[in-house]
Amino acid sequence: MLDNTRAWLLGQIRAAKPSFISKQPHFNFISAHYFWIVSLTILASVLMYATAGGQLAYIDALFFASGANTQAGLNTVDVNLLNTFQQICIYIFTMTSNPIVIHSSVVFLRLYWFEKRFQNMVRDARARRVTISKSRAKAHLDMNQAEMGV
């Protein structure tokens, strides 16, 4: 019974492992969202903490950054106590991580992946396509078709 429980537990842990930690990472669109939000949160928290001059704890900077990047707007310190650079950081990171920017960047990422995946098919289709030469493209004027609008 202990072996069955152990095997079940190991199976659950292996199934819960994210795909980007594996030896062959597979990024899907939700992991691109998560990567964007988490990386911008860490970057903004480091910038806000480094420019605070010792007047802002890192946990407060992290809370500000996560609030700005998730559109929560929560804060632990009065915004008036932040310097101008920190307020600009909050403003810029809020703009770069709003849902419109995130979703449109994921759409462009999806377009890039599809173009990369189907690049050979497009090249083959263009190679098979016959171009119309000028000699074959000369119009044959038929008065009946001209009157019918064809």
Structure, described:
With 150 residues, the protein is an all-alpha fold. It has a domain at 29-128. The protein contains seven helices and no strands. It has helices spanning 2-16, 29-50, 58-69, 84-96, 99-117, 119-128, 143-148. Helix 2 packs across helix 3 and helix 3 (58-69) packs parallel to helix 4 (84-96). The longest helix is centred in the N-terminal third of the chain and has 22 residues, at 29-50. It is flat. Keywords: Membrane, Transmembrane, Transmembrane helix.
Q: Summarize this, please?
A:
This protein is an all-alpha fold and 150 residues long.
What count of helical segments does DSSP give?
Answer: 7
Shape: flat
What value does the Rg take, in angstroms? 28 Å
The residue fraction in helices comes out at 55-70%
Describe the main β-sheet briefly: none
Task: Pick out the low-confidence regions.
Answer: none
Instruction: State the total count of DSSP E strands.
Output: 0
Mean pLDDT: 82
- The arrangement of helices and strands along the chain is HHHHHHH
Jot down its keywords.
mainly alpha, 7 helices, 150 residues, flat, single chain
